[in-house]
Specification:
Layout (H helix, E strand, L loop, with lengths): L39 E5 L5 E5 L17 H54 L16 E3 L2 E3 L1
Antiparallel strand pairs: 1-2, 3-4
């Protein structure tokens, strides 16, 4: 375990000294007399037996303090405030909805203009190569009573 040139040392083992448990002396029981002697009650049961014992008063909870009455005016003001906030929120949502709807309609109009304009551009630009339609020469047309006669 140790290299050859290292001197070996003796190992000391220390064992802990146990601590004795403390000696517990029971406290003497001293009877304590109550401040006043409770009344002894006897009850005669229907079968003739007599039961005797101390009367125990029922534990009564402390009376609950009455809640202060809420003013009718305070209730009306609170409800009016809630109603006002609801109306303001509804108007804000309605305004946002109308703005979004107007933007959507504007987008649809622009889309229709682009599609229709593209269709017109295709008709104009491809008109020279198309042979199957009716061609009207405007220089030779005669205008008579709002009708074109060729």
């Amino acid at each position: 375990m140790y290299p050859d040139h290292t001197p070996q040392r003796a190992v000391e083992v220390h064992h802990p000294t146990p601590i004795p448990p403390p000696v517990v002396h029971p406290a003497p029981v001293v009877p304590v007399q109550p401040g006043h002697v409770p009344a002894v009650a006897s009850i005669v049961l229907p079968d003739g037996r007599v039961v005797t014992g101390y009367a125990i008063d029922a534990v009564r909870p402390e009376p609950v303090a009455a809640k202060p009455a809420v003013s009718r005016t305070a209730v009306n003001v609170a409800l009016g405030g809630v109603g006002f906030l609801a109306v303001c929120g509804g108007l804000l949502l309605l305004t946002s909805f109308i703005a979004a709807l107007a933007a959507f309609i504007g987008q649809l109009i622009i889309l229709a203009a682009v599609v229709f304009g593209g269709w017109i551009a295709v008709q104009v630009l491809s008109g020279s190569g198309h042979k199957g339609g009716t061609t009207v020469n405007i220089r030779r047309a005669v205008i008579k009573r709002n009708h074109f006669h060729g």
